[in-house]
Structure formats: structure tokens, C-alpha cells
Design goal:
Blueprint: H1 8-16, H2 24-35, H3 40-50, H4 54-63, E1 75-80, H5 83-87, H6 90-101, E2 114-119, E3 131-133, E4 136-138, H7 143-151
Parallel strand pairs: 1-2
Antiparallel strand pairs: 1-3, 3-4
Helix pairs in contact: 1-2, 6-7
The structure holds FE2/S2 (inorganic) cluster.
């Protein structure tokens, strides 16, 4: 049986926003930071404590791409699919990441080490092709460099 969720951490988040109108988004952001993702149980607890229908909370969570309802890897690998990266071999970089991690886009490795995503542009086109691991940028990539980068994690 899974461990029951420790809701004391959620209470600390809610205390922080007590009396603040319209704080649902920052509360969800902070809760996600604390718990790693927004589980059904966590969202239900948030709804109950804020007296907001769960359907409304789900509406917000599913609208914004920043919210996750499934567990994520410790490291998020984001590969750029933008034009500048594409013309400089981004497709091969993407394939190398998939090959190394053994997962597809939007998936997380079984050991919850990596989550793999693609983005439209990482805002570092001069370094293309580019990927990001959490907050670290890696540019001018080749498939061989991708292997080196990911092996560091
Ligand atoms: S197109 Fe890849 S960083 Fe902009």
C-alpha cells in the first residue's frame, strides 16, 4: 500500500497564502515544488482546504503546461525542436536523447531519473542545436556530445 501523503507540508504552503485572494495558481506551484507533482490526493486536499470544487482545480491544472499530475524524473531533459536547431542537426540530437534514455517524448524513465520533453525554442538559437537539463544549457550538440552530457547525470 502506498504511504499516506504527508499533508503537513501542504498546510505550511496554505498558511503562507492565508487571506490572499486568488492565490490558487501560486499555491499549486508551491505545492508542486514541495511534492514534485500534483497527485489526485493532493489536489483533493487542496480543494477541500480552499473550499474550491475539484473540477475547478483540475481546470486550472490541465490548462497550464507548468503543472504535472504524474511523477516526474529528478532531471528534466528538454530538447529544442525549433527551426535554428532543426537546420543544424536537431533531429539527430533528439534521436540520440531518445536512444540514450530509452523513452519517448513526455515520458519518464522507470527509475524516475529523467523526464524527456521537447520545446519550440529554448531561446539560445546561437548555440543550436540545444538541450536543457533542469537549468543547464548544452549547445552546439552532436549525438556524441549528447551521450557525454547525459552520462554526467
Ligand atoms: S531554435 Fe533551438 S534554441 Fe531557438
Amino acid at each position: 500500500m502506498p504511504e499516506p501523503l504527508d499533508l503537513s507540508k501542504l498546510d505550511a504552503v496554505l498558511d503562507h497564502y492565508r487571506g490572499v485572494e486568488g492565490a490558487m495558481i501560486p499555491i499549486l506551484q508551491e505545492a508542486q515544488e514541495v511534492y514534485g507533482y500534483l497527485s489526485e490526493e493532493l489536489l483533493a486536499a487542496i480543494g477541500k482546504r480552499l473550499r474550491i470544487p475539484l473540477s475547478r482545480i483540475y481546470g486550472v491544472v490541465t490548462f497550464y503546461a507548468q503543472f504535472y499530475t504524474t511523477p516526474r524524473g529528478r532531471f528534466t531533459v528538454r530538447v529544442c525542436r525549433g527551426t535554428a536547431c532543426h537546420v543544424r542537426g536537431g533531429k539527430n540530437v533528439l534521436k540520440a536523447v531518445q536512444r540514450h534514455l530509452g523513452i519517448g517524448e513526455g515520458e519518464t524513465t522507470a527509475d524516475f531519473k529523467f523526464t524527456f520533453e521537447t520545446v519550440a525554442c529554448l531561446g539560445a538559437c546561437a548555440l543550436s542545436p540545444v538541450l536543457l537539463v533542469n537549468k543547464n544549457y548544452y549547445g552546439k550538440l552532436t549525438p556524441a556530445k549528447v551521450e557525454q552530457v547525459l552520462k554526467q547525470y
